[in-house]
Design a protein that fits this description.
The chain has 344 residues and is of the alpha/beta class. Helices cover 33% and strands 19% of the residues. The strands form 2 sheets. Strands 1-9-10-8-7-4-5-6 form an 8-stranded mixed sheet, with helices on both faces. A two-stranded antiparallel sheet has the order 2-3. The protein is globular. This is S-adenosyl-L-methionine-dependent methyltransferase.
């Protein structure tokens, strides 16, 4: 059975409930928005020969498979996201009750490798492998970290029962067949090992109906699902990943719901700080999330995408708009074999 729980820590009671806005913020204060942060392959030169579209760079290995950019702005966005997840979990890298001394850990879609590097520092006796389509990871890393350029949707070359822990984060809209991916995770996890996935919603919501009826956010909430219907990819996987795990055979599946206030509008100081990071995450991600998708899938011009992003940015910088991004974390365990009892 899949359990809905709220994760331990300061955010738990706040994240699952209505977020109260700070009524002392001046809605006409122009300074409110001023602090926003305006197959396995060896790494070779052709992989680094990125495709350039509309001034942004994209991975060349399996060109077009992933919609996000891999340039400096996109990497900054990924690192902000890593800090946002860490703040949400009060400094924790994961929630699953994994073995205290894991030997091998896999980070799928590792991005800049921030999570893998932190995990390697936390578990110096473990080998941490991070895979991605882009070679954007740093060169100087802990000795127990290894990065591979790989397509996680291709057939895995990892051994059966190899990993103690498999970590997935921020892959919404990127995978064409989630059941196949979970099946590969099941095969390569050790019995008793854990899979954990963290995903946030691609849609803005609010607890107090403060989103503008028309404008940037309203348009944004329509075009994302439209793109992914054309691509036949699941955008809101945060709502289905727990069931996907159950269907793949994982047991003791637990889900933890969170809310990210987009902007420093909450009254609670901890949530206000989280809101600064969440807004920075959105602002550095807006164009990255939309430019390639809207131009290549829906036929928009780059200028039209820029206008949409500018409108969304203006709305989330208003203290009257109490936008929220939902985020869920789910984890489950690969069943351990039943103990055998010899009969006499």
């Amino acid at each position: 059975m899949c359990q809905d729980e709220e994760a331990a820590g300061q955010q738990d009671s706040d994240q699952g409930s209505h977020i109260a806005p700070d009524t002392d913020i001046d809605s006409n204060d122009s300074a409110y928005g001023d602090d926003a942060i305006t197959e396995t392959t060896s790494i070779s030169s052709w992989i680094r020969d990125y495709r350039i579209e509309n001034g942004r760079t994209y991975h060349s290995f399996k060109d077009g498979k992933y919609w996000g950019s891999n340039d400096e702005e996109a990497n900054e966005h990924l690192d902000i996201g890593h800090n946002l997840y860490m703040k949400t979990l009060n400094g924790r890298l994961f929630l699953a009750p994994i073995h205290p001394t894991p030997s091998q850990i896999l980070d799928l879609g590792t991005g800049t490798g921030a999570w893998a590097i932190d995990m390697a520092d936390m578990h110096p006796s473990a080998l941490v492998i991070g895979t991605d389509l882009s070679p954007i990871q740093p060169t100087w890393v802990p000795p127990n970290v290894r990065f591979e350029i790989d397509d996680m949707e291709a057939e895995w070359t990892f051994a059966e029962n190899q990993f103690d822990f498999i970590h997935i984060r921020g892959l919404h809209g990127s995978i064409t067949d989630w059941p196949v991916l979970y099946a590969q995770c099941m095969r390569c996890l050790k019995p008793g090992g854990y899979i954990e996935q963290a995903e946030y919603s691609a849609q803005f919501t609010s607890d107090d109906d403060s989103l503008p009826r028309d404008g940037g956010i309203a348009a944004w909430n329509k075009v994302g699902p439209e793109c992914h219907r054309v691509l036949n990819r699941e955008l809101q996987v945060l709502e289905s990943m727990g069931q996907h795990m159950i269907d793949a055979g994982f047991e003791e599946v637990v889900q933890h719901p969170f809310k990210w206030p987009v902007g420093p509008w909450p009254r609670d100081p901890t949530l206000k700080d989280l809101g600064h990071w969440a807004r920075a995450h959105v602002e550095t991600g807006l164009e990255n999330w939309t430019l390639r998708l809207l131009t290549s899938v829906l036929g928009w011009t780059a200028d039209e995408v820029s206008i949409l992003c500018a409108n969304v940015r203006a709305e989330i910088r208003s203290s009257r708009v109490h936008a929220v991004h939902r985020m869920n974390i789910a984890y489950g365990r690969k069943p351990a074999p039943l103990a055998r009892h010899d009969s006499h």
